[in-house]
Hints:
Layout: H1 2-25, H2 34-53, E1 62-69, E2 74-85, E3 88-97, E4 103-110, E5 118-122, E6 128-130, H3 134-142
Amino acid sequence: MIPATAARYSVLTAALVLCATFAADAQIAVPPSATNVALQEKCAAQSRQKYAALGWSNNPETHFTSHYNAALGKCFMLIESVAALGDEVSIFKTLVNVTDAKQFGLWTKLGDDDASTRCTVTMTSGEEQPCQSEEEFKRLVKFYMQ
C-alpha cells in the first residue's frame, strides 16, 4: 500500500508543479492602487480643463486622450485633430505635459504630400528625436501614455 500512496503523491506533486509553472508564466492583472486611480482621475480632469482653455473643445474634429504617467509623475494629453483645407485634409497630433502645456511630441501631415510630414518627440533625456512615420510617432509617445 505504501508504494501506491507514494505514486499518488508523486502524481499530485507533479500536477502542483505544473500548475505553479503555468501560473508563473501567466500575466496576472494587478488592480491599480487607489492612489494611482485618483491620480488618473485628477489627470483626466486637468486635461479636460487644459483642452478647453487651449480652445480645442470648440473643434468637433479634435479629440484627446489623457494619461498620468506614474514613472514620470506627470500628466500627459495626446491631442488629435483633422482639418480640411479646401480639398486637402491635414492631420495633427500633439503630445503635451498638461501641467505646463510643454509640447513633448508633434506629428503633422499636410494633405497627401508625404514630404510635408513633420514628426518629433522629446525623449525623457530632453533630446529631440525625429521620427519618420505616424507609426514611429505612436511607438515613441507610447512610453508617455502608458
